[in-house]
Amino acid sequence: MLISLFLLQRFLQIVPFHWLRRMDTEVVVSGRVRIPDLLVLGENLAALLEDTDRSTITEDMPVPLLVVEVVSPGKANEDRDYRYKRSEYAARGIPEYWIVDPAKAKVTVLTLVDGLYEAQVLQGEVILQSPQFPELSLALAKVLSPTD
Fold first, then answer.
1. Exposed site from 48, 59, 60, 91, fewest CB < 10 Å?
2. pLDDT tens figures, 56-106
3. In CATH, which of 2.60.300.12, 3.30.450.20, 3.30.70.2470, 3.90.1570.10 is domain 2-144?
């Protein structure tokens, strides 16, 4: 929870408030519904969601610019975030997907290239930078443990 709140706070410094959703918006992918920990929508998608009664991004809507998932403990959660969601988000065309894994002290930044994700695995004393939001610069240690 604190990781997604920390990231929300940091994204609020660089994108409009109405572009952000945290654990409250469904994304339809490959016939199933996912609820990411954090979404950066973009202007067109944010406008569409403001005109609807539900917080659901359907397959006929634009894709979010960025999806962030924080891995919960457990093998099933790891498989879901690293394998299933990765392929579902790629098939949906989501350009950037972060997998934040506090238990393994790493963040995987996935960038969509020709329909497949290219992964950059970050660990240790490095800076996390988003390919789409280069003005965002985060110390990885702070992302993984925002209360320190």
1. 60
2. 999 999 999 999 999 987 766 777 888 899 999 999 999 999 999 999 999
3. 3.90.1570.10
